[in-house]
Amino acid sequence: MSDHHINLIGWILFIVSAIGFIIASWGHFWATFGSVFFLIACLVFLIPFFRPR
Fold this sequence. Notes:
By secondary structure, this protein is an all-alpha fold. The protein contains two helices and no strands. The longest helix has 23 residues, at 3-25.
């Protein structure tokens, strides 16, 4: 398995974790805000994986 695939799998797991944090923190504004912010940050880090080379 290449480093590229391992990194992609790692980021997908981070996204799943962020979604779990959002679900767990629902109803608590600051915790939900932080979880959504974390999810957005993970998605930003995924941009290079889907850009054409």
